[in-house]
């Protein structure tokens, strides 16, 4: 799950071939395919893997709330490692929003609140959305992508760094 992924023009590369079976070297050798967009990233989690991780975090969140020495603890707000930080924002209704980010990334709290705003506007107000079901709304996806791009452009230390 943790291996790096290479994508050329949106097609994931596995060894010498893309996901649709094209030879990468032949693709790169053809001038008609230029300009080429190359992206390095992490392997995308399947829906089942996302559900499993969210379930584990929910359990840890509940245990953290109960074991905290602080009276009325709201649970885990952030888990920090050398390579990432997991930020969690729990709404008053108990919905949790989580973001994995570079440990140096600034502005994650405002990003989480923006994601909640997008969820409220494009999922909860959508008459076809059912609670606790995957969100299938193009406007939600577009606005979420835009919010993530804005946060990413802010850089690891926030605006003005």
Describe the structure.
It contains four helices and seven strands. It is an alpha+beta fold and 161 residues long. The longest helix is centred in the middle third of the chain and has 21 residues. The protein starts with a strand and ends in an 8-residue tail after the last helix. The model has no long low-confidence stretch (mean pLDDT 82). This is Trafficking protein particle complex subunit. Keywords: Cell membrane, Endoplasmic reticulum, ER-Golgi transport, Golgi apparatus, Membrane, Postsynaptic cell membrane, Synapse, Transport.
Which characteristics define this entry?
161 residues; Pdz3 Domain; Beta-Lactamase; 2 domains; three-stranded antiparallel β-sheet; 4 helices; 19% strand; synapse; golgi apparatus; postsynaptic cell membrane; cell membrane; TRAPPC
In short:
The protein is α+β, with helices and mostly antiparallel strands and 161 residues long.
The top level CATH class name of the largest domain: Alpha Beta
Question: What is the tally of beta strands?
Answer: 7
Strand content: 15-25%
The helix content is: 25-40%
Q: Biggest sheet: strands side by side, in what order?
A: 3-2-1-4
N- and C-termini, Cα separation:
33 Å
Q: Find the structural class using helix and strand composition.
A: alpha+beta
Mean pLDDT: 82
Topology of this structure?
Layout: E1 4-8, E2 11-14, E3 17-18, H1 24-29, E4 38-42, H2 47-67, E5 78-80, E6 85-90, E7 96-101, H3 108-124, H4 138-153
Antiparallel strand pairs: 1-2, 1-4, 2-3, 5-6, 6-7
Helix pairs in contact: 3-4
């Amino acid at each position: 799950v943790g291996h790096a992924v290479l994508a050329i023009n949106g097609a994931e590369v596995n060894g010498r071939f893309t996901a649709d079976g094209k030879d990468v070297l032949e693709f790169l050798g053809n001038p008609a395919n230029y300009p080429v967009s190359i992206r390095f990233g992490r392997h995308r989690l399947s829906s089942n893997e996302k559900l499993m991780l969210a379930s584990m975090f929910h359990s840890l969140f509940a245990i953290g709330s109960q074991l905290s020495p602080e009276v009325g603890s709201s649970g885990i707000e952030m888990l920090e490692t050398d390579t990432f930080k997991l930020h969690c924002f729990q709404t008053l209704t108990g919905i949790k929003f989580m973001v994995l980010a570079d440990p140096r990334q600034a502005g994650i709290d405002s990003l989480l609140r923006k994601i909640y705003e997008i969820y409220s506007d494009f999922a909860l107000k959508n008459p076809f959305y059912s609670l606790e079901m995957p969100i299938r709304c193009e406007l939600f996806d577009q606005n979420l992508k835009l919010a993530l791009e804005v946060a990413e452009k802010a850089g690891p230390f926030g605006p003005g760094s």
